[in-house]
Write a structure and sequence with these properties.
Elements lengths: L7 H5 L8 E2 L2 E2 L1 E2 L10 H13 L9 H21 L6 E4 L2 H12 L8 E5 L8 H4 L7 E5 L1 E2 L4 E2 L1 H7 L4 E7 L11 H10 L3 E5 L11 H4 L3 E5 L9 E5 L1 H4 L26 H19 L14 H28 L5 E4 L11 E5 L4 H10 L2 E2 L1 E3 L4 H7 L8 E4 L7 H18 L2
Parallel strand pairs: 3-15, 5-6, 5-9, 9-10, 10-11
Antiparallel strand pairs: 1-2, 4-12, 7-8, 11-12, 13-14, 14-17, 16-17
Helix pairs in contact: 2-10, 3-10, 10-11
Length: 426
């Protein structure tokens, strides 16, 4: 690979939020896992739709026809993002809502005693919808995690998988600590038993390229606000699976086809336009960095080629800073990092606790100095509160990187950490 240089200035210039200050400090947005900032072009796209193309679907007049065409274009854009067909892309309010609708649709053809397999590493957005099916007599089992490195227990998974398993709902990357799961390995095993596979890609999507065909998932869900867009959920639905699934939606048309059958009613069109513009934003970044990844993107063309290059560039840029964070944080007394060992698959999210310190106190200290970080369980309740038992001390402190993060902001983290340690007398 040629000497890699990420054009962070080009990226940052597109985010008005980067100009913000707090108590005289420049704001450092290290809160990406909870939601990223939004580039101006995405907001402009939302405004353009509302100003000039706003209409309900299927009308005979100009704005309705324009709106329909823009919606189909958005599906084509996300088809390049996922590596799928445009008719395999559905939109909804958010990933949790998409999951609830999916669960309530699938249960229509399930019977009491059928089983759903979820995991202890997941966000509740990919646990609660399936746990709700217990009200219909469905047996819900959860795969344990290895507490020393926050990874899924493969043996426990295999012991709980059976011919009764109808759905495997699995996490691709953990928002609690960044652990990446080899979902293809789990999907292949689940398919041997005829189970449908639902992948929560919410935390994975902002950091790595997605190829739904490669992992052979039946459903993959993500949220645009995690990768520079508005609050809207996007879902890949494997066509041959989607055509057979019953869904819950407005029964205006008995023979509704995929992907429309997975959309409850009139979509949030303006937000969908903004989400599609996020992908165009990524493709623009990728086009500027393709020269560094020529071997990895051989055979890819057009927008798909640029999107993959963007995610490879973002991952490489973020990971260099994440390694610095993890390496230097380990030197602080009483500080514990969570996640897989160095060199194992993970995102650039870094999570830790300090002995005897409530993590909210760390979050406030950082926030008052312009460093925006998260503290708590982040709805990864099973992992943080029940398995690691960190609820009483405020969960973990989470630092998340993004392509607009600067090296000087990483340096500020350690300046503030040094100051915090002096305050607490460690």
């Amino acid at each position: 690979m040629k000497d890699f240089k990420f054009d962070v200035d080009y990226v940052r210039d597109q985010f008005p939020a980067m100009a913000r200050t707090v108590n005289g400090y420049p704001a450092a947005y290290l809160d990406g896992p909870g939601g990223t900032q939004v580039p101006k072009r995405v907001v402009d796209k939302v405004n353009d739709y509302l100003y000039y193309h706003n209409a309900n679907c299927d009308g005979a007049y100009a704005t309705s026809r324009e709106s329909d065409a823009m919606m189909e274009n958005a599906r084509e854009v996300f088809a390049d993002y996922f590596n799928c067909g445009a008719d395999e892309v559905a939109f909804g309010a958010n990933t949790s809502s998409n999951n609830f609708r999916l669960a309530l649709g699938l249960v229509r053809t399930m019977e009491p005693g059928d089983e759903v397999l979820i995991t202890d590493i997941d966000h509740e957005g990919n646990r609660s919808p399936w746990r709700t099916l217990e009200d219909f007599g469905i047996v819900v089992k959860s795969v344990k995690i290895n507490t020393e490195d926050i990874t899924l227990d493969w043996d426990d998974f295999k012991s709980k998988l059976s011919k009764k398993t109808k759905v495997l709902a699995i996490n691709w990357a953990a928002n609690s600590c960044g652990t990446i799961t080899d979902v293809k390995k789990y999907i292949d095993e689940a398919h041997k038993y005829g189970a449908l596979t639902v992948v929560d890609g919410v935390h994975y999507a902002p950091h790595k390229p997605i190829d739904v065909k490669e992992i052979d998932a039946d459903f993959v869900l993500c949220s645009a606000y995690k990768f520079f867009g508005p609050h809207v959920g996007v879902m890949y639905v494997k066509k041959e699976v989607g055509e057979k699934v019953k869904t819950v939606r407005v029964m205006a048309y008995d023979n509704e086809e995929t992907p429309h059958k997975f959309e409850t009613g009139t979509p949030d069109s303006e937000l969908v336009m903004g989400a599609a513009e996020c992908v165009e934003f990524l493709a623009d970044i990728g086009e500027r960095h393709t020269k560094y990844f020529e071997d990895e993107i051989i055979g890819l063309t057009g927008r798909r080629r640029n999107v993959v290059a963007a995610m490879l560039a973002i991952d490489k840029y973020e990971e260099s800073m994440a390694v610095q964070l993890r390496t230097r944080l380990r030197k602080y007394p009483g500080l514990k990092l969570y996640g897989v060992p160095e060199g194992e698959p993970r995102t650039s999210t870094v999570s830790f606790t300090i002995d005897g310190v409530h993590t909210h106190d760390i979050g406030v200290f950082f926030g008052d100095r312009g460093l925006f970080v998260w503290d708590g369980d982040f709805y990864a309740i099973e992992t943080i509160n029940n398995v690691l038992k960190l609820k009483e001390t405020g969960g973990v402190l989470r630092i998340g990187l993004a392509p607009y993060t600067l090296q000087c902001e990483i340096d500020r983290v350690f300046e503030v950490m040094d100051e915090f340690y002096k305050v607490i007398g460690k």
